[in-house]
Amino acid sequence: MGIYTELYPVNNHLRHAELLDGLWRFQFDPESRGEADAWPKNGLPESISMPVPASFSDVFTDARSRDYAGDFWYETAFCVKEVSPDKRYFIRFGSVTHTCRVFVNGVECASHTGGFLPVVADVTSAVVPGMNRLTVKANNELSETNIPCGTTVRRSDGSKRSMGYFDFFNYSGIQRSVYYMELPKCAIKDYSLVYRLEGSDAYIDYKIEADGGDEVSIAFIDAEGKVAARGDGEQGTLFIPSAHLWKVRNAYLYDVVIELKQGGKVTDRYTAKAGIRTVEIKGESILLNGEKVYLKGFGKHEDADMIGRGFNYAIAKRDYECLKWIGANCFRTSHYPYAEEWYRMADEEGFLIIDEVPAVGMMRSIANFLTAGRGEAKGFFAECPDIGTLSKNHRAAIEEVIARDKNHPSVIAWSIFNEAETYTELAEKYFAPLFELARALDPQKRPLTGALEKSSSPAACRVNKMMDFICLNRYYGWYISGGELEEAERMFREEMDAWQAKKLNKPFVFTEFGTDTLDTLHKLPGVMWSQEYQQEYMRMHFEVFAGYPAIQGELAWNFADFQTGQGIMRVNGNKKGVFTRQRQPKAAAYTIRERWLNIK
Ligand code: GCB
For the CA atoms of 112, 355, 56, 4, what is the dihedral angle to 10 degrees? Predict the structure, then answer.
Protein backbone atom coordinates (compact mmCIF):
# COMPACT_ATOMS: atom_id res chain seq x y z
CA MET A 1 0.00 0.00 0.00
CA GLY A 2 2.90 2.35 0.72
CA ILE A 3 1.72 5.94 0.51
CA TYR A 4 -1.16 6.80 2.78
CA THR A 5 -3.07 9.95 3.45
CA GLU A 6 -4.13 8.91 6.95
CA LEU A 7 -7.54 7.26 7.01
CA TYR A 8 -10.64 9.42 7.12
CA PRO A 9 -11.04 10.55 10.73
CA VAL A 10 -13.22 8.48 13.06
CA ASN A 11 -14.05 8.97 16.69
CA ASN A 12 -14.18 6.17 19.23
CA HIS A 13 -12.75 5.31 22.62
CA LEU A 14 -9.29 4.77 21.10
CA ARG A 15 -9.27 7.47 18.41
CA HIS A 16 -10.07 11.11 18.89
CA ALA A 17 -11.07 13.28 15.92
CA GLU A 18 -12.09 16.87 16.49
CA LEU A 19 -13.26 19.26 13.79
CA LEU A 20 -11.37 22.54 13.76
CA ASP A 21 -13.77 24.16 11.28
CA GLY A 22 -14.97 27.64 12.08
CA LEU A 23 -13.60 31.16 11.92
CA TRP A 24 -9.83 31.18 11.58
CA ARG A 25 -7.43 34.13 11.30
CA PHE A 26 -6.26 34.99 7.78
CA GLN A 27 -3.74 37.26 6.11
CA PHE A 28 -2.49 37.87 2.58
CA ASP A 29 1.29 38.00 2.27
CA PRO A 30 2.01 39.54 -1.15
CA GLU A 31 5.67 40.19 -0.29
CA SER A 32 6.23 36.71 1.15
CA ARG A 33 7.61 38.09 4.38
CA GLY A 34 5.67 35.89 6.80
CA GLU A 35 8.44 33.42 7.39
CA ALA A 36 11.22 35.96 7.75
CA ASP A 37 9.00 37.81 10.21
CA ALA A 38 8.34 34.58 12.16
CA TRP A 39 4.56 34.61 11.74
CA PRO A 40 4.30 30.90 12.60
CA LYS A 41 5.90 31.65 15.97
CA ASN A 42 4.56 35.12 16.73
CA GLY A 43 1.15 34.97 15.08
CA LEU A 44 -0.28 36.78 12.06
CA PRO A 45 0.28 40.49 12.68
CA GLU A 46 -2.67 41.99 10.81
CA SER A 47 -5.13 39.21 10.38
CA ILE A 48 -8.81 39.20 9.59
CA SER A 49 -11.28 36.42 10.29
CA MET A 50 -11.92 33.81 7.61
CA PRO A 51 -14.34 30.88 7.48
CA VAL A 52 -12.96 27.35 7.18
CA PRO A 53 -13.87 25.43 5.09
CA ALA A 54 -14.43 27.92 2.25
CA SER A 55 -12.59 29.53 -0.60
CA PHE A 56 -11.47 32.98 0.46
CA SER A 57 -12.36 34.75 -2.80
CA ASP A 58 -16.09 35.32 -2.70
CA VAL A 59 -16.35 36.53 0.87
CA PHE A 60 -14.55 39.73 -0.19
CA THR A 61 -16.20 42.79 -1.71
CA ASP A 62 -13.09 44.07 -3.52
CA ALA A 63 -11.70 42.59 -6.73
CA ARG A 64 -8.05 42.61 -5.58
CA SER A 65 -8.75 40.31 -2.67
CA ARG A 66 -11.05 38.08 -4.69
CA ASP A 67 -8.44 37.63 -7.41
CA TYR A 68 -5.43 37.47 -5.08
CA ALA A 69 -2.49 35.30 -6.16
CA GLY A 70 0.51 34.61 -3.96
CA ASP A 71 1.18 33.56 -0.37
CA PHE A 72 -1.57 33.72 2.22
CA TRP A 73 -1.80 32.50 5.79
CA TYR A 74 -4.35 30.91 8.05
CA GLU A 75 -4.10 30.50 11.80
CA THR A 76 -6.12 28.96 14.59
CA ALA A 77 -5.60 27.26 17.94
CA PHE A 78 -6.42 23.79 19.18
CA CYS A 79 -6.36 22.20 22.58
CA VAL A 80 -4.34 19.15 23.57
CA LYS A 81 -5.54 17.85 26.92
CA GLU A 82 -2.43 15.83 27.67
CA VAL A 83 0.61 14.79 25.71
CA SER A 84 1.00 11.08 26.14
CA PRO A 85 3.92 8.93 24.96
CA ASP A 86 1.34 6.33 23.91
CA LYS A 87 -0.29 8.61 21.40
CA ARG A 88 0.45 10.36 18.16
CA TYR A 89 -1.05 13.69 17.23
CA PHE A 90 -2.11 14.82 13.78
CA ILE A 91 -3.72 17.69 11.96
CA ARG A 92 -5.52 16.51 8.87
CA PHE A 93 -6.71 18.94 6.19
CA GLY A 94 -9.11 17.64 3.55
CA SER A 95 -7.03 19.84 1.23
CA VAL A 96 -5.19 23.15 1.07
CA THR A 97 -5.16 24.81 -2.35
CA HIS A 98 -2.62 24.64 -3.97
CA THR A 99 0.55 24.33 -1.90
CA CYS A 100 1.09 24.67 1.82
CA ARG A 101 3.34 24.38 4.80
CA VAL A 102 1.92 23.57 8.20
CA PHE A 103 3.38 24.83 11.48
CA VAL A 104 2.44 24.04 15.06
CA ASN A 105 3.78 26.42 17.69
CA GLY A 106 6.20 27.72 15.09
CA VAL A 107 7.59 24.28 14.21
CA GLU A 108 7.12 23.13 10.63
CA CYS A 109 5.30 19.77 10.62
CA ALA A 110 4.29 19.20 6.99
CA SER A 111 4.38 20.59 3.51
CA HIS A 112 2.28 19.59 0.54
CA THR A 113 1.91 20.31 -3.14
CA GLY A 114 -1.44 19.76 -4.81
CA GLY A 115 -4.61 21.50 -3.77
CA PHE A 116 -7.23 18.76 -3.86
CA LEU A 117 -5.99 15.93 -1.65
CA PRO A 118 -5.45 15.59 2.08
CA VAL A 119 -2.54 17.16 3.89
CA VAL A 120 -1.63 15.26 7.02
CA ALA A 121 0.76 16.78 9.53
CA ASP A 122 2.21 14.57 12.24
CA VAL A 123 2.45 17.18 14.98
CA THR A 124 3.47 14.83 17.77
CA SER A 125 6.83 16.44 18.41
CA ALA A 126 5.42 19.98 18.32
CA VAL A 127 2.36 19.86 20.57
CA VAL A 128 2.23 20.93 24.20
CA PRO A 129 -0.48 20.37 26.80
CA GLY A 130 -3.04 23.13 26.59
CA MET A 131 -3.53 25.52 23.67
CA ASN A 132 -1.41 25.15 20.53
CA ARG A 133 -1.03 27.54 17.63
CA LEU A 134 -1.69 26.08 14.19
CA THR A 135 -0.43 28.13 11.26
CA VAL A 136 -0.76 27.38 7.56
CA LYS A 137 1.20 29.13 4.88
CA ALA A 138 -0.50 28.55 1.54
CA ASN A 139 0.08 29.67 -2.01
CA ASN A 140 -2.29 29.62 -4.99
CA GLU A 141 -0.02 30.61 -7.87
CA LEU A 142 -0.45 28.52 -11.00
CA SER A 143 2.39 27.19 -13.12
CA GLU A 144 3.13 24.71 -15.85
CA THR A 145 4.90 22.39 -13.45
CA ASN A 146 2.05 21.76 -11.04
CA ILE A 147 -1.50 20.60 -11.67
CA PRO A 148 -3.89 22.15 -12.51
CA CYS A 149 -1.66 23.98 -15.01
CA GLY A 150 -1.62 27.66 -15.67
CA THR A 151 0.62 30.65 -15.34
CA THR A 152 1.16 33.54 -12.95
CA VAL A 153 1.84 36.95 -14.40
CA ARG A 154 2.57 40.34 -12.87
CA ARG A 155 0.35 43.33 -13.35
CA SER A 156 2.03 46.68 -14.06
CA ASP A 157 1.95 47.50 -10.33
CA GLY A 158 3.89 44.32 -9.58
CA SER A 159 1.00 42.37 -8.07
CA LYS A 160 0.46 38.79 -9.17
CA ARG A 161 -2.34 37.36 -11.21
CA SER A 162 -2.96 33.65 -11.70
CA MET A 163 -4.25 32.52 -15.04
CA GLY A 164 -5.43 28.96 -15.33
CA TYR A 165 -5.26 27.00 -18.54
CA PHE A 166 -8.68 25.79 -17.49
CA ASP A 167 -12.24 26.98 -17.31
CA PHE A 168 -12.96 27.32 -13.61
CA PHE A 169 -12.19 30.01 -11.09
CA ASN A 170 -8.92 29.44 -9.25
CA TYR A 171 -10.67 29.15 -5.88
CA SER A 172 -8.16 28.70 -3.10
CA GLY A 173 -7.75 28.44 0.62
CA ILE A 174 -8.67 25.81 3.18
CA GLN A 175 -11.67 24.54 1.30
CA ARG A 176 -12.29 21.32 3.19
CA SER A 177 -12.66 20.31 6.82
CA VAL A 178 -9.71 20.24 9.20
CA TYR A 179 -9.40 17.68 11.98
CA TYR A 180 -7.22 17.48 15.02
CA MET A 181 -6.65 13.77 15.67
CA GLU A 182 -5.16 11.77 18.51
CA LEU A 183 -4.26 8.25 17.49
CA PRO A 184 -2.80 5.42 19.51
CA LYS A 185 0.92 4.98 18.94
CA CYS A 186 0.19 1.46 17.85
CA ALA A 187 -2.33 2.27 15.13
CA ILE A 188 -4.06 1.01 12.02
CA LYS A 189 -2.60 2.91 9.09
CA ASP A 190 -4.41 1.68 6.06
CA TYR A 191 -6.50 -1.13 4.63
CA SER A 192 -7.67 -2.31 1.26
CA LEU A 193 -10.49 -4.55 0.09
CA VAL A 194 -10.80 -6.39 -3.21
CA TYR A 195 -13.96 -8.23 -4.17
CA ARG A 196 -14.58 -11.34 -6.23
CA LEU A 197 -18.03 -12.73 -6.87
CA GLU A 198 -19.02 -16.30 -7.52
CA GLY A 199 -22.71 -16.32 -8.15
CA SER A 200 -24.13 -14.59 -5.12
CA ASP A 201 -21.15 -15.46 -2.91
CA ALA A 202 -18.44 -12.91 -2.27
CA TYR A 203 -14.74 -13.34 -1.61
CA ILE A 204 -12.98 -10.35 -0.11
CA ASP A 205 -9.22 -10.17 -0.27
CA TYR A 206 -8.16 -7.78 2.43
CA LYS A 207 -4.87 -6.22 3.52
CA ILE A 208 -4.26 -4.18 6.63
CA GLU A 209 -1.26 -2.02 7.36
CA ALA A 210 -0.49 -1.15 10.95
CA ASP A 211 2.15 0.69 12.92
CA GLY A 212 3.22 -1.80 15.55
CA GLY A 213 0.87 -4.21 17.30
CA ASP A 214 1.00 -7.96 17.08
CA GLU A 215 -2.51 -9.05 16.14
CA VAL A 216 -4.95 -7.56 13.71
CA SER A 217 -8.46 -8.60 12.78
CA ILE A 218 -11.21 -7.50 10.43
CA ALA A 219 -14.94 -8.10 10.49
CA PHE A 220 -17.75 -7.37 8.06
CA ILE A 221 -20.98 -6.62 9.95
CA ASP A 222 -24.26 -6.66 8.06
CA ALA A 223 -27.08 -4.15 8.34
CA GLU A 224 -28.71 -6.22 11.07
CA GLY A 225 -25.58 -6.06 13.17
CA LYS A 226 -24.57 -9.67 12.55
CA VAL A 227 -20.97 -10.62 11.79
CA ALA A 228 -21.02 -11.71 8.15
CA ALA A 229 -17.32 -12.59 7.99
CA ARG A 230 -14.23 -12.30 10.14
CA GLY A 231 -10.54 -12.62 9.45
CA ASP A 232 -7.35 -12.55 11.49
CA GLY A 233 -3.96 -11.39 10.30
CA GLU A 234 -2.66 -8.62 8.09
CA GLN A 235 -4.01 -10.16 4.97
CA GLY A 236 -6.39 -12.86 3.96
CA THR A 237 -9.63 -13.69 2.25
CA LEU A 238 -13.08 -13.35 3.76
CA PHE A 239 -16.01 -15.31 2.46
CA ILE A 240 -19.61 -14.10 2.58
CA PRO A 241 -22.13 -16.54 1.19
CA SER A 242 -25.17 -14.91 -0.44
CA ALA A 243 -23.64 -11.49 0.07
CA HIS A 244 -25.67 -8.31 -0.17
CA LEU A 245 -24.20 -6.49 -3.13
CA TRP A 246 -23.66 -2.77 -3.52
CA LYS A 247 -25.71 -1.83 -6.57
CA VAL A 248 -26.36 1.34 -8.53
CA ARG A 249 -28.86 3.47 -6.63
CA ASN A 250 -29.43 0.53 -4.32
CA ALA A 251 -26.40 0.56 -2.10
CA TYR A 252 -25.96 -2.02 0.59
CA LEU A 253 -23.19 -1.15 2.99
CA TYR A 254 -21.52 -3.38 5.51
CA ASP A 255 -19.76 -2.01 8.55
CA VAL A 256 -16.10 -2.90 8.57
CA VAL A 257 -14.39 -3.12 11.93
CA ILE A 258 -10.62 -3.42 12.05
CA GLU A 259 -8.94 -4.04 15.39
CA LEU A 260 -5.31 -3.97 16.36
CA LYS A 261 -4.00 -5.62 19.48
CA GLN A 262 -0.74 -5.60 21.33
CA GLY A 263 -0.07 -8.11 24.05
CA GLY A 264 -3.71 -9.17 23.94
CA LYS A 265 -4.96 -5.62 24.51
CA VAL A 266 -6.90 -3.75 21.81
CA THR A 267 -4.89 -0.62 21.01
CA ASP A 268 -6.75 0.66 17.96
CA ARG A 269 -10.07 0.22 16.25
CA TYR A 270 -11.02 1.66 12.88
CA THR A 271 -14.54 1.53 11.51
CA ALA A 272 -15.72 2.25 7.99
CA LYS A 273 -18.44 1.31 5.51
CA ALA A 274 -17.83 -1.11 2.67
CA GLY A 275 -19.86 -2.02 -0.38
CA ILE A 276 -19.32 -5.34 -2.09
CA ARG A 277 -19.21 -4.87 -5.85
CA THR A 278 -17.00 -5.57 -8.81
CA VAL A 279 -16.29 -3.30 -11.79
CA GLU A 280 -14.93 -4.47 -15.07
CA ILE A 281 -14.81 -3.60 -18.72
CA LYS A 282 -15.72 -6.39 -21.11
CA GLY A 283 -15.69 -5.59 -24.80
CA GLU A 284 -17.85 -2.53 -25.27
CA SER A 285 -19.62 -2.92 -21.92
CA ILE A 286 -19.09 -1.52 -18.45
CA LEU A 287 -20.02 -4.18 -15.93
CA LEU A 288 -20.94 -3.70 -12.31
CA ASN A 289 -21.30 -7.00 -10.47
CA GLY A 290 -21.15 -8.63 -13.89
CA GLU A 291 -24.16 -6.66 -15.15
CA LYS A 292 -24.14 -4.00 -17.82
CA VAL A 293 -24.47 -0.43 -16.60
CA TYR A 294 -25.12 2.68 -18.69
CA LEU A 295 -23.72 5.85 -17.10
CA LYS A 296 -26.10 8.80 -16.84
CA GLY A 297 -25.10 12.01 -15.17
CA PHE A 298 -22.78 14.96 -15.31
CA GLY A 299 -19.38 16.43 -15.01
CA LYS A 300 -19.61 18.55 -11.87
CA HIS A 301 -17.62 21.12 -10.00
CA GLU A 302 -17.26 21.86 -6.34
CA ASP A 303 -18.73 25.31 -6.73
CA ALA A 304 -21.37 27.41 -5.03
CA ASP A 305 -22.23 30.99 -4.15
CA MET A 306 -20.14 32.56 -1.40
CA ILE A 307 -18.22 29.44 -0.37
CA GLY A 308 -16.66 28.87 -3.79
CA ARG A 309 -15.15 25.42 -3.67
CA GLY A 310 -15.65 25.02 0.08
CA PHE A 311 -17.33 21.81 1.11
CA ASN A 312 -20.83 22.19 2.53
CA TYR A 313 -23.12 19.29 3.46
CA ALA A 314 -26.34 21.11 2.52
CA ILE A 315 -25.09 21.84 -0.98
CA ALA A 316 -23.82 18.29 -1.46
CA LYS A 317 -27.12 16.91 -0.20
CA ARG A 318 -29.09 19.16 -2.56
CA ASP A 319 -26.87 18.05 -5.45
CA TYR A 320 -27.53 14.41 -4.70
CA GLU A 321 -31.26 15.08 -4.48
CA CYS A 322 -31.14 16.83 -7.88
CA LEU A 323 -29.13 13.94 -9.31
CA LYS A 324 -31.74 11.49 -8.08
CA TRP A 325 -34.62 13.62 -9.36
CA ILE A 326 -33.15 13.79 -12.85
CA GLY A 327 -32.47 10.06 -13.00
CA ALA A 328 -28.66 10.21 -12.91
CA ASN A 329 -26.48 7.40 -11.60
CA CYS A 330 -22.96 8.79 -12.11
CA PHE A 331 -20.75 11.86 -12.10
CA ARG A 332 -17.17 12.69 -12.92
CA THR A 333 -15.23 14.70 -10.34
CA SER A 334 -14.15 17.12 -13.04
CA HIS A 335 -11.46 18.40 -12.78
CA TYR A 336 -9.96 17.32 -9.44
CA PRO A 337 -10.68 14.91 -6.60
CA TYR A 338 -13.57 16.26 -4.49
CA ALA A 339 -13.90 16.43 -0.73
CA GLU A 340 -14.09 12.94 0.78
CA GLU A 341 -17.62 13.59 2.03
CA TRP A 342 -18.83 13.49 -1.59
CA TYR A 343 -17.62 9.90 -1.94
CA ARG A 344 -19.02 8.81 1.41
CA MET A 345 -22.40 10.16 0.37
CA ALA A 346 -22.14 8.47 -3.05
CA ASP A 347 -21.31 5.17 -1.33
CA GLU A 348 -24.50 5.52 0.63
CA GLU A 349 -26.70 6.68 -2.24
CA GLY A 350 -25.37 4.20 -4.79
CA PHE A 351 -23.86 6.71 -7.22
CA LEU A 352 -20.96 5.88 -9.49
CA ILE A 353 -17.95 8.18 -9.63
CA ILE A 354 -15.26 8.65 -12.23
CA ASP A 355 -12.55 10.03 -9.97
CA GLU A 356 -10.35 12.55 -11.77
CA VAL A 357 -6.92 13.82 -10.77
CA PRO A 358 -6.34 17.60 -11.14
CA ALA A 359 -4.45 17.15 -14.40
CA VAL A 360 -6.22 19.81 -16.40
CA GLY A 361 -4.69 22.58 -18.46
CA MET A 362 -2.05 20.52 -20.25
CA MET A 363 -2.70 22.77 -23.16
CA ARG A 364 -1.29 26.29 -23.29
CA SER A 365 -4.41 28.36 -23.63
CA ILE A 366 -6.19 30.76 -21.33
CA ALA A 367 -9.42 30.14 -23.26
CA ASN A 368 -8.73 26.41 -23.27
CA PHE A 369 -12.41 25.62 -23.57
CA LEU A 370 -12.51 27.35 -26.96
CA THR A 371 -9.27 25.81 -28.13
CA ALA A 372 -10.32 22.36 -26.95
CA GLY A 373 -13.87 22.66 -28.14
CA ARG A 374 -12.75 23.46 -31.65
CA GLY A 375 -9.91 21.00 -31.72
CA GLU A 376 -7.27 23.66 -32.15
CA ALA A 377 -4.97 22.65 -29.32
CA LYS A 378 -1.26 23.13 -29.82
CA GLY A 379 1.50 21.22 -28.15
CA PHE A 380 2.09 21.55 -24.43
CA PHE A 381 4.74 19.04 -23.50
CA ALA A 382 7.41 20.28 -25.93
CA GLU A 383 7.37 23.70 -24.29
CA CYS A 384 6.70 22.71 -20.70
CA PRO A 385 9.62 24.22 -18.75
CA ASP A 386 10.11 21.17 -16.53
CA ILE A 387 8.31 17.97 -17.46
CA GLY A 388 10.10 16.11 -14.65
CA THR A 389 8.52 18.26 -11.95
CA LEU A 390 5.14 18.26 -13.65
CA SER A 391 5.17 14.50 -13.89
CA LYS A 392 6.34 14.16 -10.27
CA ASN A 393 3.35 16.23 -9.12
CA HIS A 394 1.02 14.32 -11.42
CA ARG A 395 2.33 11.02 -10.04
CA ALA A 396 1.82 12.23 -6.49
CA ALA A 397 -1.80 13.13 -7.26
CA ILE A 398 -2.40 9.65 -8.68
CA GLU A 399 -0.74 8.00 -5.68
CA GLU A 400 -2.65 10.11 -3.21
CA VAL A 401 -6.06 9.84 -4.85
CA ILE A 402 -5.80 6.06 -5.05
CA ALA A 403 -4.57 5.89 -1.47
CA ARG A 404 -7.48 8.06 -0.36
CA ASP A 405 -10.33 6.64 -2.44
CA LYS A 406 -9.42 3.02 -3.12
CA ASN A 407 -12.04 1.56 -0.79
CA HIS A 408 -15.05 3.55 -1.98
CA PRO A 409 -17.53 1.33 -3.81
CA SER A 410 -18.79 4.45 -5.61
CA VAL A 411 -15.45 4.96 -7.35
CA ILE A 412 -15.58 2.89 -10.52
CA ALA A 413 -12.75 4.43 -12.52
CA TRP A 414 -9.79 6.78 -12.37
CA SER A 415 -9.48 9.60 -14.86
CA ILE A 416 -5.83 10.45 -15.33
CA PHE A 417 -6.35 13.79 -17.13
CA ASN A 418 -8.81 16.15 -18.71
CA GLU A 419 -8.20 17.39 -22.23
CA ALA A 420 -4.45 17.04 -22.38
CA GLU A 421 -2.29 16.93 -25.46
CA THR A 422 -2.43 13.27 -26.55
CA TYR A 423 -1.36 13.34 -30.17
CA THR A 424 2.42 13.62 -29.94
CA GLU A 425 5.20 11.21 -29.10
CA LEU A 426 6.02 13.33 -26.05
CA ALA A 427 2.45 13.03 -24.78
CA GLU A 428 2.54 9.28 -25.24
CA LYS A 429 5.83 9.10 -23.33
CA TYR A 430 4.47 11.34 -20.63
CA PHE A 431 1.27 9.40 -20.02
CA ALA A 432 2.40 5.78 -20.39
CA PRO A 433 4.15 5.58 -16.99
CA LEU A 434 1.29 7.42 -15.28
CA PHE A 435 -1.25 4.89 -16.54
CA GLU A 436 1.10 2.09 -15.49
CA LEU A 437 1.42 3.61 -12.05
CA ALA A 438 -2.34 3.85 -11.55
CA ARG A 439 -2.76 0.28 -12.76
CA ALA A 440 -0.15 -0.97 -10.34
CA LEU A 441 -1.40 1.00 -7.34
CA ASP A 442 -5.11 0.31 -7.34
CA PRO A 443 -5.76 -2.92 -5.43
CA GLN A 444 -9.16 -3.19 -7.16
CA LYS A 445 -7.64 -2.61 -10.62
CA ARG A 446 -10.43 -0.26 -11.63
CA PRO A 447 -10.66 0.83 -15.24
CA LEU A 448 -8.55 3.81 -16.28
CA THR A 449 -9.51 6.62 -18.55
CA GLY A 450 -8.90 10.26 -19.46
CA ALA A 451 -11.17 12.86 -21.06
CA LEU A 452 -10.23 13.61 -24.65
CA GLU A 453 -10.85 16.93 -26.35
CA LYS A 454 -11.50 17.43 -30.04
CA SER A 455 -7.85 17.44 -31.16
CA SER A 456 -7.56 13.93 -29.71
CA SER A 457 -9.24 12.65 -32.84
CA PRO A 458 -9.55 9.01 -33.89
CA ALA A 459 -6.64 9.53 -36.28
CA ALA A 460 -4.36 11.52 -33.99
CA CYS A 461 -4.82 10.35 -30.40
CA ARG A 462 -1.92 8.24 -29.10
CA VAL A 463 -3.14 7.82 -25.55
CA ASN A 464 -6.54 6.14 -25.92
CA LYS A 465 -4.79 2.78 -26.24
CA MET A 466 -3.82 3.13 -22.56
CA MET A 467 -7.44 3.60 -21.52
CA ASP A 468 -9.93 0.91 -20.62
CA PHE A 469 -12.80 3.04 -21.76
CA ILE A 470 -12.66 6.21 -23.76
CA CYS A 471 -14.08 9.48 -22.53
CA LEU A 472 -14.94 12.12 -25.09
CA ASN A 473 -15.59 15.82 -24.48
CA ARG A 474 -17.33 17.15 -27.57
CA TYR A 475 -19.16 20.37 -28.38
CA TYR A 476 -20.78 19.86 -31.80
CA GLY A 477 -23.45 22.53 -31.92
CA TRP A 478 -21.63 24.85 -29.55
CA TYR A 479 -17.95 25.53 -30.23
CA ILE A 480 -18.31 23.77 -33.55
CA SER A 481 -21.24 24.74 -35.78
CA GLY A 482 -22.89 26.69 -32.98
CA GLY A 483 -26.51 27.43 -33.79
CA GLU A 484 -26.44 24.90 -36.66
CA LEU A 485 -27.60 21.70 -35.10
CA GLU A 486 -28.13 19.81 -38.33
CA GLU A 487 -24.67 20.57 -39.60
CA ALA A 488 -23.29 19.84 -36.13
CA GLU A 489 -24.98 16.46 -36.09
CA ARG A 490 -23.45 15.53 -39.45
CA MET A 491 -19.96 16.38 -38.23
CA PHE A 492 -20.56 14.60 -34.95
CA ARG A 493 -21.66 11.42 -36.73
CA GLU A 494 -18.68 11.65 -39.03
CA GLU A 495 -16.33 11.61 -36.06
CA MET A 496 -18.24 8.78 -34.39
CA ASP A 497 -18.08 6.78 -37.60
CA ALA A 498 -14.32 7.23 -37.61
CA TRP A 499 -14.06 6.00 -34.01
CA GLN A 500 -16.31 3.05 -34.83
CA ALA A 501 -14.16 2.17 -37.84
CA LYS A 502 -11.17 1.75 -35.53
CA LYS A 503 -12.90 -1.25 -33.92
CA LEU A 504 -11.31 -0.55 -30.57
CA ASN A 505 -13.72 -2.89 -28.82
CA LYS A 506 -13.92 -0.53 -25.83
CA PRO A 507 -16.80 1.42 -24.33
CA PHE A 508 -17.09 5.16 -24.98
CA VAL A 509 -18.48 7.57 -22.42
CA PHE A 510 -19.37 11.16 -23.27
CA THR A 511 -17.90 13.11 -20.41
CA GLU A 512 -18.76 16.54 -21.79
CA PHE A 513 -21.38 17.92 -24.16
CA GLY A 514 -23.43 21.01 -23.45
CA THR A 515 -24.39 24.58 -24.25
CA ASP A 516 -24.16 27.77 -22.25
CA THR A 517 -27.73 28.61 -21.34
CA LEU A 518 -29.19 31.61 -19.59
CA ASP A 519 -31.97 30.72 -17.22
CA THR A 520 -33.65 33.99 -18.24
CA LEU A 521 -33.62 33.45 -22.00
CA HIS A 522 -36.39 31.80 -23.98
CA LYS A 523 -36.59 31.96 -27.74
CA LEU A 524 -38.54 30.04 -30.34
CA PRO A 525 -37.00 28.73 -32.47
CA GLY A 526 -34.06 28.20 -30.15
CA VAL A 527 -30.93 30.31 -30.42
CA MET A 528 -27.61 29.73 -28.74
CA TRP A 529 -27.81 30.65 -25.02
CA SER A 530 -31.57 30.04 -24.89
CA GLN A 531 -33.19 27.29 -22.88
CA GLU A 532 -34.84 25.92 -26.02
CA TYR A 533 -31.46 25.55 -27.70
CA GLN A 534 -30.06 23.57 -24.77
CA GLN A 535 -33.04 21.22 -25.09
CA GLU A 536 -32.66 20.81 -28.86
CA TYR A 537 -28.94 20.24 -28.49
CA MET A 538 -29.51 17.53 -25.87
CA ARG A 539 -32.14 15.80 -28.03
CA MET A 540 -29.76 15.78 -31.00
CA HIS A 541 -27.07 14.21 -28.84
CA PHE A 542 -29.38 11.55 -27.51
CA GLU A 543 -30.21 10.52 -31.06
CA VAL A 544 -26.57 10.27 -32.01
CA PHE A 545 -25.73 8.27 -28.86
CA ALA A 546 -28.47 5.78 -29.71
CA GLY A 547 -26.79 5.06 -33.06
CA TYR A 548 -23.49 3.82 -31.62
CA PRO A 549 -23.62 0.70 -29.44
CA ALA A 550 -20.15 1.40 -28.00
CA ILE A 551 -21.47 4.52 -26.26
CA GLN A 552 -22.06 3.40 -22.73
CA GLY A 553 -22.58 6.64 -20.92
CA GLU A 554 -23.54 10.27 -21.16
CA LEU A 555 -22.29 12.76 -18.59
CA ALA A 556 -23.54 16.16 -19.65
CA TRP A 557 -21.55 19.32 -19.08
CA ASN A 558 -22.29 20.61 -16.50
CA PHE A 559 -24.47 19.70 -13.59
CA ALA A 560 -24.77 23.35 -12.56
CA ASP A 561 -23.57 26.78 -13.67
CA PHE A 562 -20.19 27.53 -12.15
CA GLN A 563 -17.74 30.37 -11.63
CA THR A 564 -14.86 30.84 -14.05
CA GLY A 565 -12.31 33.56 -14.65
CA GLN A 566 -13.55 36.63 -16.50
CA GLY A 567 -13.57 36.91 -20.28
CA ILE A 568 -15.60 37.81 -23.29
CA MET A 569 -16.85 34.24 -23.58
CA ARG A 570 -18.09 33.91 -20.02
CA VAL A 571 -21.01 35.82 -18.52
CA ASN A 572 -20.15 35.71 -14.83
CA GLY A 573 -19.11 32.11 -15.22
CA ASN A 574 -19.86 29.07 -17.30
CA LYS A 575 -23.59 28.70 -17.89
CA LYS A 576 -23.64 25.16 -19.24
CA GLY A 577 -25.41 24.00 -16.12
CA VAL A 578 -28.50 21.90 -16.53
CA PHE A 579 -29.22 23.41 -13.12
CA THR A 580 -28.48 26.98 -12.16
CA ARG A 581 -25.75 27.71 -9.66
CA GLN A 582 -28.52 27.79 -7.05
CA ARG A 583 -29.48 24.25 -8.11
CA GLN A 584 -32.78 25.03 -9.81
CA PRO A 585 -33.61 23.19 -13.04
CA LYS A 586 -33.39 24.83 -16.46
CA ALA A 587 -35.82 23.60 -19.12
CA ALA A 588 -33.33 21.00 -20.39
CA ALA A 589 -33.38 19.32 -16.99
CA TYR A 590 -36.91 18.12 -17.79
CA THR A 591 -35.87 16.87 -21.24
CA ILE A 592 -32.99 14.94 -19.70
CA ARG A 593 -35.10 13.65 -16.85
CA GLU A 594 -37.66 12.20 -19.21
CA ARG A 595 -34.92 10.27 -20.97
CA TRP A 596 -32.90 9.12 -17.97
CA LEU A 597 -35.82 7.91 -15.93
CA ASN A 598 -36.64 5.68 -18.88
CA ILE A 599 -33.17 4.20 -19.33
CA LYS A 600 -32.83 1.33 -16.94
C1 GCB B 1 -14.09 21.77 -21.77
C2 GCB B 1 -13.45 21.64 -20.45
C3 GCB B 1 -14.30 22.21 -19.32
C4 GCB B 1 -14.99 23.48 -19.80
C5 GCB B 1 -15.90 23.12 -20.94
C6 GCB B 1 -16.66 24.33 -21.51
O7 GCB B 1 -13.72 21.20 -22.73
O8 GCB B 1 -13.05 20.35 -20.13
O9 GCB B 1 -13.48 22.46 -18.23
O10 GCB B 1 -15.69 24.11 -18.77
O11 GCB B 1 -15.14 22.59 -21.97
O12 GCB B 1 -17.75 24.61 -21.05
O13 GCB B 1 -16.15 24.97 -22.39
Answer: -30
